[in-house]
Design goal:
This protein is of the alpha/beta class and 229 residues long. The protein is 49% helix and 17% strand. 37% of the residues are buried. The structure holds 2'-deoxycytidine-5'-monophosphate. The site of 2'-deoxycytidine-5'-monophosphate has 14 residues, from α2, α4 and α8. Its main location: cytoplasm.
Length: 229
């Protein structure tokens, strides 16, 4: 049986995470939040005080070993997912801006990306997978039947992110978030390995002026037409 794969790539705050979860639920497919893996690795390396010394070859080797052996569990709870790192619940902390920055640093290093490759591919299980990230279509699952690139203006992404973080009880300022988003976009798009960009055969959706239901409809109409029958 062919495993059906839907990839959803795009910059931070484009709504990928929410949409990927809804689409996975709609088709009853598995879900890979690849950004969470980079965030978990960023958190783990930060806890071990290794992030500032990645240019040191021995430290980097140690980090590759850590990346390959990360002890991660994704557990369903109600409508959501709980993420454990080394047995501890890190669901909330990995979503902070600070850990987002750590993830972005880690994600720019080719050997660390390579160390997470097989772990990501292992999520492709029957009947199918929705994979959300930056390089799902270009690098991890080039064979995907459905490739979607979801983008939005930096300003509208910053507004959404502020609402999301405020909903988590965090005190944040729009200008700080916008600056973070612009810096992370630049780093994600300009890195030499697996930069953020649409696959040649991706369906591109700009969600700046669309709500979640409108984007969901565009995505499912497209997927219905392209998934193997
Ligand atoms: O989607 P996110 O904000 O949780 O991702 C966190 C960081 O990880 C972000 O800087 C981009 C990086 N990332 C990546 O390089 N490749 C992926 N497939 C997913 C995320």
């Amino acid at each position: 049986m062919t495993i059906q794969i839907i990839t959803i790539d795009g910059p931070s705050g484009s709504g990928k995470g929410t949409l990927a979860a809804k689409i996975a639920n709609h088709y009853q497919f598995h879900l890979l939040d690849s950004g969470a893996l980079y965030r978990l690795l960023g958190l783990s390396l930060q806890q071990k005080n290794l992030l500032e010394s990645l240019e040191n070859e021995d430290v980097l080797k140690q980090c590759v070993t850590i990346a390959t052996n990360l002890d991660i569990v994704f557990k369903s709870k109600g409508d959501g997912i709980i993420i454990l790192l080394d047995g501890k619940d890190v669901t909330q902390i990995i979503r902070t801006e600070q850990i987002g920055e750590c993830a972005s640093k880690v994600a720019a290093i080719p050997v660390l990306r390579a160390a997470l490759l097989e772990r990501q591919r292992a999520f492709a299980q029957a009947p199918g997978l929705v994979a959300d990230g930056r390089d799902m279509a270009t690098t991890i699952f080039p064979e995907a039947q459905v490739k979607i690139y979801l983008t939005a203006s930096a300003e509208s992404r910053a507004e959404r992110r502020v609402k999301q973080l405020q909903g988590m009880g965090l005190d944040v300022k729009i200008n700080d978030i916008l600056a973070n988003i612009q810096a992370r976009d630049k780093r994600d798009m300009e890195r030499t390995v697996a930069p953020l960009k649409p696959a040649d055969d991706a369906y591109i959706i700009d969600s700046s002026n669309l709500n979640i239901d409108e984007v969901f409809k565009l995505m499912t109409d497209y997927a219905d037409a392209h998934l193997a029958k």
